[in-house]
Amino acid sequence: MTVLIAGGGIAGLALALTCHEIGVPFQVFESVAQIKPLGVGINLQPSAVRELADMGLLPHLDEIGVRTRDYGMYTKRGLHIWTEDRGTWAGYRWPQYSVHRGRLHMLLLQALHERAGTGCVCTAAGPPPASATRAARQCSTCAMPPGSSAASVAPS
Predict the structure, then answer these.
(1) What 3-state class would DSSP assign to 20?
(2) Phi and psi for 48 in degrees, rounded to 5?
């Protein structure tokens, strides 16, 4: 049995990395033709960092993000209202990170390609226009034609 993962976003790529790690066959299907580093800043809470650390990605998080020490609220004139420690400074075993979503996405994609090969992510996998020929209806990355058995799709 092959796990079919609908979407090559952060969650889909994290699931694919986990499947690869535990030896479960998978295939990621992403509707866009090219995965790009899109988005804005996000915060990775310690529970999410724990999962990424289990995937061996903790050293890379230091390269793409900042360990968040605290979170504060201030008035529009800059007067302090409240501050709360975050991550390891708050007593968690794992840090909290502030990262650009696109950089995290690319880190996950790169790790997946390095570990499982580039054929495990099928891009441009959305429904084709009705006028497309059968040849044009196959996935641009894995060349899986419509109606193919998912069992025949395996990561390289």
Answers:
(1) helix
(2) -70, -40
